[in-house]
Write a structure and sequence with these properties.
Layout lengths: L3 H4 L7 E6 L4 E6 L11 H10 L1 H13 L1 H5 L2 H8 L9 H17 L6 H12 L9 H20 L6 E8 L5 E11 L5 E12 L6 H14 L7 E6 L3 H14 L4 E4 L1 H11 L3 H13 L4 H11 L11 H13 L4 H10 L4 H12 L1 H17 L1 H10 L9 H11 L9 H17 L16 H22 L7 H39 L5 H23 L6 H10 L4 H4 L4 H9 L10 H20 L8 H14 L23 H15 L7 H14 L8 H11 L1
Parallel strand pairs: 3-6, 6-7
Antiparallel strand pairs: 1-2, 3-4, 4-5
Helix pairs in contact: 6-8, 6-31, 8-31, 9-10, 11-18, 11-23, 12-16, 12-22, 13-15, 14-17, 15-16, 17-20, 18-19, 19-24, 21-22, 24-26, 26-27, 27-29, 28-29
């Protein structure tokens, strides 16, 4: 067993020993392991340091934790020393303050909390922490330089990448750009990285030219050439698509435009709804979100917290509907307690009236169940599209699954609704003759979407006419700002009128549908289909041939072939058809490349079948390992190719290895594609979680540093 004296030479490698009581015995441990070595010698220790995966991961994490200290070179310390407040501060104190600022920003701790923890931190470290007021101004630039150097070392010039960008007016005009690229580590591990390379706080809504300007700033900052960008991922608003076209013309490049699938699915979910359910939902939004007392009562009665949701993310709203569906039986008690405690009395009385009315309550319960169950797969699709990593090779399978769930592009089979609740409703009508209409035909129900459009379309057309009839003139900055302010006020006033008219229309349609309950199974199914069909139609209109996401779907469907589990099951003819769809990617639109992939697919699928993947693995890593193995293959003693069994000779050679290496080269391009701009959306979420609506009170530099450290 190795001695304590010999262990001293391994301290730098995180190896140490622990005494066991007073017996003189000791255990040898490594900081990367929870268990001690079993009687180790020098060879065991050295093999652990050199080959153990857990040790390599621990060392890498330690290097990342101390990257700020490593980046704080003597030149940067000298630069800090030029600040008069720091002229007498020691190097150790400067490093300590930088480290504290780094940890507080990374953890999201407000800097002013530094004053609370100062005494204890200084007592434990025996170092000076400095003022909370001066800490960011003195050291933030150093942190940014360290992060800038780290990003520059990762996203080096010449690296192929894709850009993900998005903007929002919900947090004050914020625009961010993220670069997605693939790199390999020194241990031959393939890593897909996404870096925030630009964050801008702007004064007005961006048009196409301004978006192009922000993209150019981001690329210039990180020295990304336009011809190194494979694709641009963003949502499908007019300004974004126009910016893509403008960039292509200005830079003379071809970028693949990837419109966000997650936004599309979220927009589809917003198309669904029932007037009766919408009316009830509106009342609940007037009761719970703004009242702590109402939330507390809901929690006490239902034993579930009232969920908050984002008004721009339909899938977060759907989660609140799930809670309402599960706790529907307790809502009557909740409303009674709210009335007893005089909380939101007016709206609570109206909501309670809907619950206590038998026919309205029955209709509401079935609509709520149909909304939750019928759109559950759409909710899952939204969450799947928000993923990172291997999503380029999985997105096509998720869309194919939607076709399986909605085979006729209509609402799926819903057991809890069709087999239980509708049967209960029919029994209720049979037991209550006052609700029976044997000779009256039920009016065709209108979906919530139809009611909304009936109110919205005339107003929208008037707005379009006003824009078309406007006289275009050269404006000064002051005139433009005044006009934008006036238009904002006019929009707010028009929005208030629109909301009032919409609520009146929904109220009228909800009353009509509640007065004429469905009398049989077909009428109930028609009623449910009416509410859900707009969402399902919207989704498939975008995906089907002719939709704006059709080409993107075909690309991701072809990318499934790079999944060895999928490649070994598909036939050669179907594979060739899918590979032709790669022509939609400008970087891959090459006849010779497509021919090579089609010719080599049988050999690739054969290799995938021989090398069975028993558990999920990284697809890019699998292809990289395959590529490395191709480079190491040597001719056998008999001089035959291990893929096609063709004999080598002096005048001819097998082309299998050269052709199969193409699969890794294409995988590096496909791995850059992403079906969602969710990475940019998470930047907004991070800002909102830190500051709410107050992030403009802080500098763009600090916001950028916080988000980079959080990523």
């Amino acid at each position: 067993m190795i001695t304590k004296r010999e262990l001293i030479t391994y301290e730098k490698d995180h190896i140490f020993c622990i005494d066991i009581g007073n017996s003189g015995k000791y255990e040898v441990r490594c900081k990367c392991k929870t268990k001690a070595f079993n009687c180790p010698d020098k060879y065991t220790i050295e093999m652990h340091i050199k080959n153990a995966k857990c040790h390599a991961v621990y060392v890498q994490k330690q290097a990342e934790m101390h990257r700020v200290d490593v980046a704080a070179t003597d030149d940067r310390i000298a630069e800090a020393g030029r600040i008069w407040r720091l002229s007498t501060v020691t190097k150790e104190d400067l490093l300590f303050r930088q480290r504290m600022l780094f940890m507080m920003l990374k953890a999201g701790i407000p800097i002013n909390k530094c004053e609370i923890i100062r005494p204890d931190m200084e007592a434990m470290s025996l170092k000076s922490l400095g003022s909370a007021k001066d800490l960011p101004s003195d050291h933030l630039d150093m942190l940014l330089k360290g992060e800038d150097a780290l990003q520059s070392s990762e996203l080096v010039p010449g690296t192929l990448c894709s850009l993900i960008c998005d903007g929002t007016s919900r947090l004050g005009e914020v625009f961010n750009v993220i670069a997605r690229f693939i790199c390999t580590t020194s241990t031959n591990k393939v890593v897909t990285k996404q870096l925030l390379i630009h964050l801008g706080f702007l004064r007005s809504t961006l048009d196409a030219c301004e978006i192009c300007g922000e993209l150019k700033k981001a690329m210039q900052k990180r020295r990304v050439c336009p011809n190194e960008v494979i694709a641009l991922s963003l949502d499908g608003c007019k300004a974004n698509t126009s910016a893509h076209d403008t960039m292509e013309k200005a830079e003379d490049v071809k970028w693949l435009l990837l419109l966000c699938f997650s936004h599309m699915a979220s927009n589809a979910g917003e198309q669904a709804g029932f007037p009766n359910l919408k009316k009830f939902w509106s009342l609940l939004q007037k009761i719970f979100p703004h009242s702590t007392a109402a939330k507390q009562i809901f929690k006490e009665v239902t034993d579930a917290a009232w969920k908050e949701y984002s008004g721009t993310c339909w899938y977060s709203e759907h989660e609140v509907y799930q809670v309402l569906f599960l706790k529907f039986q307790f809502l009557g008690t909740v409303f009674s307690k709210l009335i007893e405690q005089n909380v939101c009395t007016k709206n609570t009385l109206e909501a309670q009236g809907m619950i206590l009315c038998p026919r309205v309550s029955l209709l509401l319960k079935i609509e709520l169940a149909a909304y939750v169950e019928g759109l559950m797969e759409l909710l899952k699709f939204c969450y799947c599209m928000e993923a990172d990593g291997e999503i380029p090779f999985e997105a096509g399978a998720y869309v194919d699954k939607m076709y399986d769930i909605y085979p006729d592009q209509s609402s799926p089979h819903m057991p809890s609704v069709e087999d239980a609740l509708i049967r209960e409703a029919l029994q209720f009508v049979n037991d209550n003759p006052q609700y029976q209409r044997p000779n009256v035909l039920r009016p065709q129900p209108r979906a919530l979407r139809e009611v909304t459009l009936a109110v919205h379309r005339p107003r929208r057309q008037r707005a379009i006419d006003a824009v078309q009839n406007a006289v275009q003139a050269i404006e000064t900055v002051a005139q433009r700002n005044a006009r934008l302010q006036r238009e904002a006020e006019e929009r707010a006033a028009a929005e208030a009128i629109y909301e009032r008219e919409l609520n009146e229309a929904i109220e009228l349609e909800a009353r009509l549908q509640a007065d004429f309950l469905p009398q049989n199974d077909d009428e109930w199914k028609t009623h449910i289909q009416t509410g859900l069909r707009p969402a399902i139609n919207y989704f498939f209109q975008r995906i089907n041939n002719g939709g704006d996401r059709f080409q993107t779907y075909q690309i991701f469907k072809a990318a499934q072939l790079w999944n060895p589990m999928y490649a070994k099951m598909i036939d050669d003819e179907s594979a060739r058809t899918s590979l032709e769809n790669l022509r939609f990617v400008p970087k891959l639109n090459d006849d010779e490349l497509i021919d090579v992939l089609c010719i080599s697919f049988p050999k690739y699928s054969t290799y995938a079948r021989r090398n069975v993947v028993e558990k999920p693995c990284s697809i890019l890593q699998w292809h990289f390992d395959f590529y490395r193995r191709l480079g190491e293959i040597q001719e056998s003693d008999v001089g035959r190719c291990s893929f096609c069994n063709i004999a080598f000779n002096a005048n001819a050679s097998c082309s299998c290895i050269r052709l199969l290496k193409t699969w890794w080269k294409v995988a590096q391009v496909l791995g850059l594609l992403t079906p969602s701009s969710g990475a940019s959306e998470r930047v907004f979420s991070t800002l909102n979680s830190f500051y709410g609506n107050q992030q403009h009170g802080f500098s763009t530099r600090r916001n950028f540093c916080i988000i980079v450290l959080q990523s």
